[in-house]
């Protein structure tokens, strides 16, 4: 009797031990993934293999807008989203202040461009951002470039982009003149980003440019529209109905302070001040 119990005990133990051994890679992988991401210093909301990478064009002095973005819609990237997302603030070149900011926040890229300032070579900035993505994130699916005065309805926009994600996507608020998405928020499929990053930028008068080169119009949106017109397989999606965009100098046509929950109706608010961002965020999370 005692022997049978002993045999039972030994076989039960053996089964238990084999289970532990079999399952241990599962536990080990999970815990080692966590340790790796911690030791890599990755921040919340960032992923080693993002499917959407967002570049937010910003200027050294705009740290208030950057902080407002970090504390509002960027902070919402922590939640479970259908696409893994990574973001970077994209600046022309480092200064002591922005180097300190990068040390603290770890979310900035310096393009080290020769030119800077308003409307100067926006095409070059866009091009440099695409080259950066091609080098560092070639495995991503879609790539966004946006401005630091844009408020995103994080979950809603990412759900929308997850529906649309295509390696030849060209998405945003479309102007009526030519096929041109406004540069305040534009999303491109990685195939288009890789193609553009392999071409050469031509900053001289356009009649001096080779046909294969990218003409710099000084404006990001018009430059990009022309660069993409070389391809006939671009999947353009104009989402004007879901995006609140303002022309330069245009008075706001929508009073966000009268909206109960902006993000139930729209995906994006352009020309957001620091206060606007906190307001939009508050009404969302109430
Ligand atoms: C810009 O220059 C800094 C050093 O001054 C360097 O750390 C950084 O990687 C450069 N950025 C790019 C995109 O190459």
Automatic annotation (TrEMBL):
Spans traversing the lipid bilayer: 6-28
Keyword Membrane part of the UniProt annotation: yes
Keyword Membrane: yes
Membrane topology of this protein: Single-pass type II membrane protein
Superkingdom to which the source organism belongs: Eukaryota
UniProt protein name: Hexosyltransferase
GO cellular component: Golgi membrane
EC number: 2.4.1.-
Family recorded in the similarity comment: Belongs to the glycosyltransferase 31 family.
Main location: Golgi
Keywords noted in UniProt: Glycosyltransferase, Golgi apparatus, Membrane, Signal-anchor, Transferase, Transmembrane, Transmembrane helix
Coiled coil: none
Entries under PANTHER family matching the protein: BETA-1,3-N-ACETYLGLUCOSAMINYLTRANSFERASE
Subcellular location: Golgi apparatus membrane
Gene Ontology molecular function terms on file: glycosyltransferase activity
Gene3D superfamilies named in the record: 3.90.550.50
